[in-house]
Amino acid sequence: MTRLRGIRRIAALGLLVPILGLGSTACGGDQETIETETGDVSVSRDGEDVHVSARDGQIEGRFGKNAELPEGFPDDVPIPEGATIVGAMTSKEPGAEGTMVSIQSDGSTDALLKAFRTDMDANGWSVDQEMNMMGQRMLHASKDGRSLMVQVMERDGGSHAMLHLGEGG
Question: CA nearest 165: which of 67, 41, 79?
Fold first, then answer.
């Protein structure tokens, strides 16, 4: 069975940003702490960028115009050409290691999904599952003990994708 437990935690923490409106046009330099059942989450804003940190830095994320791939992000994980990274979050917490990357593209969901599939094949990923559920398309792939789930959906006249990379597969 695929272990995506850590990725689910990352994704849930990443959802705090849009749900709380923290990625909107915030004033520069704002910082706040959100208390959760599993510990405090520090959220700081700098212009339109948001930085999220939890569990004493074991979970880190950046969302906004200056978002980028985390340091050490594997070269064999596809980011389609022309896509813009709008968020990334990484967990180094033991037993919950993983990375979540959020991207946007001006192209259609079909074009973005095709680019992911082509790049996955070219980089040696084995696509295990493919689903289409109410306009959201998903791919699940595995390689060398890692699991990669890609969710693609329409958004703002283009397409949006969430990549979840973790152990298992």
Answer: 79
